[in-house]
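Researcher: Please predict.
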Amino acid sequence: MTDRTVARWAGWRRVVAILVGVAVLVTGGVWLENATDRASMVDEAPKTAAAQRSGADGQDSQVEPEDSGARELPGVRDCGMGEPVQEPTIITLDCSTSGRVASGIRWDAYTEDGANGSGVVQVSGGASGAAAKSFQAKLRLYGPKEVDGSVAFTALEVVYTGATPSGEHREVLPIA
């Protein structure tokens, strides 16, 4: 009778060992797949306003509005540098690390006094390789003034419409 018990336990141990081995292989495969995704994330990351201006062929990729003789529409200077871009689709929010970027911006109104739109604020996972997180937000540009010979907006208000990256539903950022 004890021989059957020992054989039964050996059989169960073998089954458990096989299941643990399969689980380790599956988990390792998922981890490696995610590592590949993290490595390619840089290529897929949103480009800054400077990169938006110059396409691969050296031509402007942003369409500039026609001059109707009215006052010049202000633009947005990426991290306070370069020529202002009107109606940008991407704005860097954290210039020191480029860890927060507003992207996919659609402007509902863009005038010489201010602009209102919506987009997604992407927060990178940092050096740890964690996946970027996205937060829906309403955006408002205001405070136009002449900066280095061009008119640019000087402030950006971000109002998160759902979850927030820092717990604050509203933040105001200087962008000139």
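Model: Residues 5 and 145 are 86 Å apart (CA to CA).
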